[in-house]
Design brief:
Helix content: 55-70%
Number of strands: 0
Radius of gyration: 21 Å
Strand content: under 5%
Shape: flat
Length: 119
């Protein structure tokens, strides 16, 4: 019986370097997740609950459509929205502009928000 050989030191270092580069390429920003929400909205339009569940299982389990949409959001679309303020994907329902959410009126928050750097 042969045991699998452990990965070489060079292969481990290359994998670690690629992982760190991938993390550095994505700014840690929380964006609108427009692609995932658009897909979810498309699936929600079906009136039959069984059709919705069937489509969700096909797009979420059998084919990796939801996973690809989420990865696209995390790696590309949210980062673009963060740095440029523009979203490449329309909001579900046809709203072409991502609406900023209003923060509650709080004096403590005002001072904190003014101290943050502007983009």
């Amino acid at each position: 019986m042969h045991l699998p050989r452990p990965a070489s030191s060079l292969a481990r270092r290359a994998a670690l370097l690629l992982g760190l580069l991938a993390l550095g390429a994505t700014p840690a920003c929380y964006g609108p997740f427009a692609a995932t929400r658009r897909l979810w909205h498309w699936n929600q339009q079906w009136e039959n609950d069984w059709a919705q569940e069937g489509l969700f299982l096909v797009t979420g389990v059998v084919t990796p459509v939801y996973a690809l949409a989420a990865v696209g959001d995390v790696l590309l679309f949210n980062a673009t929205w963060f740095w440029t303020g523009e979203c490449w994907i329309d909001e579900p329902g046809g709203d072409h502009a991502m609406q900023a959410r209003a923060l509650p009126d709080d004096p403590a928050l005002d001072g904190l928000l003014q101290a943050l750097p502007r983009r």
